[in-house]
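User: Sequence recovery, please. Input:
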């Protein structure tokens, strides 16, 4: 057993996305999408984790000089690892575009256009791009603090016919937020071509600058990545929404943590840009290729048709939800587990829609973290409020990179008369809860939804998550207590069933692990299965090591970071799965003297989830639902297609499991289809 740093562990996870991009068994359009996801993840890693590493170095220099070497060593490892992966990225990208060429799809730059394409590009630029294009003159005194984080710019060297005259410089923002980064050129026979938006602007620089007497224009792409940490706890006289809104603006002018430039850029232009960006640390400067922002590959145009993407899956109708009755009446009969995207998220939308008009429904409460752009959840809540239901919503304004989005929805809900629970300073609410209160035969009845993922109809199609729908009244009362906890700005409350952070998750999980250690020491069967996104809390890592040494069989499926690396000989199996859908569900299972306990919830085993957020983990009591969860756990460790062995984290090796090919997500879909069909026959 060994322990690795959480940042390096996460980088190993992101590398698995490159493996998917390189895998020729993955459909071609999905391969290029994985390149985009890898790049997007890396951008966020720089904005958050690399920025935090730099702050740690600065903090140690001022307060703990003896620890400076340790934090600098970590940054050096991060930088070296990313540099190696970037070489892989470029090789994989070249291979993918060679595959496109086999199918007569070609990337063209501004120097490779035929006559018809030239006419198209000039017209496209003149009619669509030029009216909204603005140029910034670049001098050593220019203030570039307002340049957008994560946006790409063309840095341009301008020269007049007289070569003895000094060069001038300019910046143009590439409007990739207004247009596709990839513009499809007119088709010629069976051949199709795509040009980057950047290259259209390069081709038409003469149309911008020739009127000023310039005769030569050399353009180079640059990108700035800024520290995304924002201060939300400043002025107590302002509302929290105002503080968040101001902090979002400040994020755009945060300290640069990465400046990428085209490696062909001349030294004089590099010098001016570094001076204007006020970059003092050379470690923040990265020599790049001609193009940046590879995250845009996530929206690369599909010119090849449906057989080059993953085949669509048909959502499985749930056996216990009767289409002839309301969903609440189905929940009242028995607990239900919904598995997304294998079951449709429409069940949640329909439940809220029905509740908004059901005369028995008196109130609806919900916690919201990340929402779809055109959220049907919000529409259902507004409709419920319009129909006289008491609707209460908590929107987490501190959901990183979703703050502005959530401010917008908060205002929309308030306008509709929805009661908004104010954000708690210093604590994030990451739990995923719905509580519906009805009055049935003069009795108060509570229906609860406790989910591992966001109430977001878009991500429910690409994230694998689980929701428990239950009319268990004791659980419903506990869910009500969570809302009271949030509304009362964090009071100590006792829960009979739910495990709630930051009050009890750490101690309860420790108790469950200690119980397995005690049973193993007495020669009893003892095991722990954990499926989660991240396992990084050092206290739990040590406790799990202790449990393994005591004889507890531990299986960990951690999609992203996992600081504990073990092998079956040491009673620990650690794997990570990357596949078509993002593995996102958290399942905790404990042998408990052959009376297994099963839990699902929103919490990973990280400091932030255990101590700094309101998270909810619920027990799953129904025996049939426990079998579903155990199947999902078991199949993870039989996977020999998409499961990587954490024990070989340097190489991310696919698990070498004998026998037929087993792919977790395909097997879960087949299993759920089978048990739902069997019950409905």
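Assistant: Recovered sequence (681 residues):
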């Amino acid at each position: 057993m060994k322990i690795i740093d959480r940042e390096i562990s996460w980088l190993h996870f992101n590398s698995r996305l490159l493996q998917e991009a390189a895998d020729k068994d993955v459909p071609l359009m999905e391969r290029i999408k994985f390149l985009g996801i890898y790049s997007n993840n890396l951008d966020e890693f720089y904005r958050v984790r690399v920025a935090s590493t730099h702050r740690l170095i600065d903090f140690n220099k001022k307060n703990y000089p003896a620890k400076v070497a340790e934090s600098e060593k970590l940054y050096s490892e991060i930088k070296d690892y990313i540099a190696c992966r970037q070489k892989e990225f470029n090789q994989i990208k070249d291979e993918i575009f060679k595959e496109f060429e086999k199918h007569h799809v070609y990337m063209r730059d501004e120097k490779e256009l035929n006559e018809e394409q030239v006419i198209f590009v000039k017209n496209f630029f003149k009619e669509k791009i030029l009216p909204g294009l603005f140029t910034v003159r670049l001098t050593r005194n220019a203030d570039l603090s307002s340049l957008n984080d994560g946006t790409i710019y063309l840095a341009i060297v301008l020269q007049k016919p007289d070569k003895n005259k000094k060069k001038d410089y300019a910046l143009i923002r590439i409007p990739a937020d207004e247009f596709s980064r990839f513009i499809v050129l007119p088709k010629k026979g069976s051949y199709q071509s795509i040009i980057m938006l950047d290259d259209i602007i390069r081709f038409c620089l003469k149309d911008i600058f020739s009127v000023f007497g310039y005769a030569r224009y050399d353009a180079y792409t640059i990108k700035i990545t800024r520290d995304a940490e924002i201060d939300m706890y400043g002025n107590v006289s302002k509302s929290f929404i105002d503080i968040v809104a101001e902090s979002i603006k400040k994020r755009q002018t945060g300290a640069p943590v990465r400046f990428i430039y085209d490696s062909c850029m001349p030294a004089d232009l590099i010098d001016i840009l570094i001076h204007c960006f006020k970059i003092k640390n050379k470690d923040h400067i990265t020599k790049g290729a001609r193009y940046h922002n590879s995250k845009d590959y996530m929206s690369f145009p599909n010119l090849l048709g449906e057989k080059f993407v993953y085949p669509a899956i048909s959502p499985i109708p749930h056996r216990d939800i009767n289409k002839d009755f309301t969903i609440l009446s189905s929940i009242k009969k028995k607990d239900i587990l919904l598995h997304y995207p294998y079951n449709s998220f429409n069940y949640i939308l329909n439940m809220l829609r029905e509740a908004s008009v059901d005369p028995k429904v008196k109130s609806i409460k919900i916690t919201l973290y990340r929402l779809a752009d055109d959220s049907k959840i919000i529409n259902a809540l507004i409709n419920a409020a319009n129909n006289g239901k008491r609707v209460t919503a908590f929107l987490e304004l501190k959901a990183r990179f979703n703050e502005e989005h959530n401010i917008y929805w908060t205002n929309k809900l308030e306008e509709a008369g929805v009661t908004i629970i104010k954000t708690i300073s210093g604590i994030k609410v990451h739990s995923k809860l719905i509580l519906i209160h009805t009055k049935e035969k003069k009795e108060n009845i509570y229906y609860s939804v406790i989910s591992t993922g966001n109430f977001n109809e878009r991500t429910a199609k690409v994230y694998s998550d689980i929701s428990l729908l239950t009319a268990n009244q004791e659980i419903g009362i506990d869910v009500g207590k969570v809302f009271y906890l949030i509304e009362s700005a964090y009071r100590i409350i006792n829960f009979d069933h739910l495990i709630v952070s930051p009050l009890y998750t750490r101690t309860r999980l420790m108790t469950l692990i200690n119980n397995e250690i005690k049973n193993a020491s007495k020669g009893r069967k003892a095991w722990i299965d954990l499926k989660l996104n991240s396992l990084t809390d050092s206290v739990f890592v040590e406790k799990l090591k202790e449990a393994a040494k005591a004889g507890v069989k531990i299986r960990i499926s951690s999609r992203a970071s996992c600081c504990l690396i073990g092998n079956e000989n040491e009673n620990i199996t650690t794997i990570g799965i990357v596949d078509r859908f993002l593995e996102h569900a958290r399942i905790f299972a404990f042998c408990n003297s052959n009376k297994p306990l099963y839990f699902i919830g929103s919490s990973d085993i990280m400091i932030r989830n255990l101590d700094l957020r309101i998270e909810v983990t619920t027990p799953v009591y129904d025996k049939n639902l426990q079998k579903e969860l155990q199947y999902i756990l078991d199949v993870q460790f039989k996977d020999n297609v998409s499961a990587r062995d954490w024990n070989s984290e340097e190489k991310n090796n696919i698990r070498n499991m004998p026998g037929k090919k087993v792919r977790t997500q395909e097997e879960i879909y087949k299993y759920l289809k089978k048990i739902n069909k069997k019950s409905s026959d």
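The longest strand covers residues 216-226.
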